[in-house]
């Protein structure tokens, strides 16, 4: 298996790469363009952006310049908190689609479960899906309670839930919930923004396998059947973060890393997010 061929099959049959490049806080312009070009040359086929990241246009330019056939790529973008509502979501999608310079987006996600809004917004994503404008639709930062609430009225079950997921926040119950509902879990901040690379247990396991701590962290997510999207704008890191298909963590390694869980987040808990200031 290689980065180019390794994919999970979503509930609707669409193939989604197990590994993608995250581009949060990759500056629009040369920084994000070079990162995406390096990733695509390395064999990455999945890029995770969002309207909030303010770099969709540059991501679009990079995918055009790369020469990689469109049907080999898997482009994810997300609707920000001030883009909720049925009509607003349709308009937001169109803005993102144009910036990316694509006819169809592979995966469109609701970025955060804005209270009182996400069910109506989901209706718009269902329409985009039925109209063939997106190949898959999903959510991000949804807890099992948010999903329960959404599923009461949803016609289509989200195909993906992208949440914070790494050894300090091993969301086992949410992972099981998603697996039981045929929702692919995708983990953001797999490296703890770099913090987890310094963890002794991770370093020891990396040494044992002759791999880097980053590779061990990505591999841990993949072995839990969680899609991983490490971010880097550094060419050498982009390349090495993808070398995760030539080794396997054994049961002891997995148990050790699972044991690092502290239910601790680097980001916000979805129920404590400052929605008021981000929905304006
Ligand atoms: N849905 C959401 O709400 C949400 C929230 C956060 C993130 N995300 C997505 O998830 C992606 C990943 O999360 P993240 O960007 O927050 O954090 P991350 O991937 O855990 O960590 C990225 C940081 O680690 C550094 N790094 C990467 N590879 C490294 C390596 N091999 N050795 C040393 N340092 C390394 C990067 O530095 P350099 O770039 O300088 O190399 C960057 O500072 C995001 O880019 C975004 O696409 C989604």
Write the layout of secondary structure elements.
Blueprint: E1 7-9, E2 15-17, E3 21-22, H1 30-42, E4 46-48, H2 56-66, E5 74-79, H3 86-100, E6 105-110, H4 118-130, E7 134-140, H5 144-151, E8 160-164, H6 172-180, E9 184-188, H7 200-209, H8 213-223, E10 227-228, H9 235-241, H10 251-258, H11 275-278
Parallel strand pairs: 3-4, 4-5, 5-6, 6-7, 7-8, 8-9, 9-10
Antiparallel strand pairs: 1-2
The structure holds NADP nicotinamide-adenine-dinucleotide phosphate.
NADP nicotinamide-adenine-dinucleotide phosphate (NAP) binds next to helix 9.
What report would you give on this structure?
With about 280 residues, this protein is of the alpha/beta class. About 40% of the residues lie in helices and about 15% in strands. The chain has helices spanning about 30-40, 55-65, 85-100, 120-130, 145-150, 170-180, 200-210, 215-225, 235-240, 250-260, 275-280, and strands spanning about 5-10, 15, 20, 45-50, 75-80, 105-110, 135-140, 160-165, 185-190, 225-230. Strands 3-4-5-6-7-8-9-10 form an eight-stranded parallel sheet. A two-stranded antiparallel sheet has the order 1-2. Bound molecules: NADP nicotinamide-adenine-dinucleotide phosphate. NADP nicotinamide-adenine-dinucleotide phosphate binds near residues 22, 24, 192 and 230. NADP nicotinamide-adenine-dinucleotide phosphate binds next to helix 9.
